UniProtKB/TrEMBL annotation:
<dbReference type="InterPro" id="IPR037972">
    <property type="entry name" value="RepB_N"/>
</dbReference>
<protein>
    <recommendedName>
        <fullName>ParB-like N-terminal domain-containing protein</fullName>
    </recommendedName>
</protein>
<dbReference type="InterPro" id="IPR003115">
    <property type="entry name" value="ParB_N"/>
</dbReference>
<dbReference type="InterPro" id="IPR036086">
    <property type="entry name" value="ParB/Sulfiredoxin_sf"/>
</dbReference>
<dbReference type="GO" id="GO:0003677">
    <property type="term" value="F:DNA binding"/>
</dbReference>
<dbReference type="GO" id="GO:0007059">
    <property type="term" value="P:chromosome segregation"/>
</dbReference>
<dbReference type="GO" id="GO:0005694">
    <property type="term" value="C:chromosome"/>
</dbReference>
<feature type="domain" description="ParB-like N-terminal">
    <location>
        <begin position="53"/>
        <end position="143"/>
    </location>
</feature>
<dbReference type="InterPro" id="IPR050336">
    <property type="entry name" value="Chromosome_partition/occlusion"/>
</dbReference>
<dbReference type="InterPro" id="IPR011111">
    <property type="entry name" value="Plasmid_RepB"/>
</dbReference>
<dbReference type="Pfam" id="PF07506">
    <property type="entry name" value="RepB"/>
</dbReference>
<dbReference type="Pfam" id="PF02195">
    <property type="entry name" value="ParB_N"/>
</dbReference>
<feature type="region of interest" description="Disordered">
    <location>
        <begin position="1"/>
        <end position="22"/>
    </location>
</feature>
<dbReference type="InterPro" id="IPR004437">
    <property type="entry name" value="ParB/RepB/Spo0J"/>
</dbReference>
Length: 325
């Protein structure tokens, strides 16, 4: 049975991440963050129609405005927190028309974590909001968080304008001036969705460096599609990935001719280890430069590691033969 909720304010989306690895933080866009009057007003929008429920995850559709480039970033700690302690913070959805009756407003990472755990239901605040109210509520909540990057905000601004929202609404969404909105939208539209998502959130990269990238692309007459091919996906950290790309675009002579760019010749910053979990953590892997570690618990038969070892021998044999050719 649903019960009315009038004063609950959804905390930061990462509040239940547990012992997440340290991340570079910026100050909240909204002064006072989640305690500000502006945040509270947006968070309680539609309060009289707002209820707390458990709803089916397959009944929730995504928002048109993607406030994060990579919702899986650092999600492992959130998954483990929910696995161990349950979902502590409800998401926020609104009622919509269509095949799925709900649309996510706040809590995309929590929803993704719940889905990855195989849970069929999720705790949620359910509101009746129109498009503009949902847009503003999503934006103000994001502005009170600490981790959205410049390019993520530029992307949200571009998507907001493309979705038909007024520049005034987008300005309120991001809590910045209309002039800055124009700069952000131009940056996102010039780079394009594919290039932006290939680079990633790049949290420590501000407007000046993104402008440097645009100028370097213009100087070399590189299109976004051509530039996207120069992004090195093997660099795990998105800020380091950006820096490597900027170096390549600004200094093409460091990587040979324009037709034979070899990113492996560019000195890369050391990439952060890539960790993956399989079968609910029964198998754990860590991959970093020149190293791969595989760990299993007692539930995994030793035959699996034996097959991996045999495959490694086969690949090594092929590599040895190739070097002899």
């Amino acid at each position: 049975m649903a019960r009315a909720v009038f004063t609950d304010i959804p905390p930061s989306e990462d509040a239940e991440d547990g012992a997440a690895e340290p991340r570079v933080r910026r100050k909240p866009i909204i002064k006072g963050g989640a305690t500000s009057s502006k945040y509270i007003a947006a968070a309680t929008q539609g309060g009289s129609d707002r209820t707390y429920q458990e709803i089916f995850v397959d009944q929730i559709q995504d928002s048109r405005i993607k406030d994060r480039i990579d919702i899986n970033e650092d999600i492992e700690s959130l998954v483990e927190s929910i696995r161990g302690n349950g979902q502590q913070i409800p998401i926020h959805v609104r009622v919509v028309q269509g095949d799925k009756p709900y649309e996510i407003v706040v809590g995309r990472r929590r929803l993704n974590a719940i889905r990855s755990l195989g849970h069929t239901k999720i705790k949620a605040f359910v509101s009746k909001l129109d498009d503009r109210e949902a847009f503003i509520a999503q934006g103000v909540e994001n502005s009170a968080r600490l981790e959205t990057s410049y390019i993520e905000r530029a992307r949200a601004a571009g998507q907001g304008i493309a979705a038909g929202f007024q520049q005034t609404d987008v300005s309120q969404f991001l809590n910045i001036s209309k002039t800055m909105i124009s700069f952000m939208v131009r940056t996102y539209e010039t780079l394009g969705e594919d290039l932006v998502t290939r680079i990633g959130p790049a949290r420590t990269i501000g407007r000046r460096k993104w402008d440097d990238l645009l100028k370097a692309m213009q100087k070399r007459s590189l299109s976004p599609a051509e530039t996207a091919k120069l992004v090195d996906p093997e660099i795990a950290d998105s800020a380091e990935r950006f820096e490597a790309l900027l170096k390549v675009v600004k200094n093409p002579q460091s990587v040979g001719s324009a037709d034979q760019q070899d990113l492996s010749k560019v000195r890369k910053p050391s990439a952060a280890p890539q960790r993956r979990r399989f079968l609910n953590g029964a198998i754990k892997t860590m991959r970093k430069s020149n190293q791969l570690t595989i760990k299993t618990d007692e539930t995994i038969p030793d035959e699996l590691l034996e097959k991996v070892y045999e495959k490694l021998e086969e690949l090594t044999f092929k590599l040895a033969n190739k070097r002899k050719e």
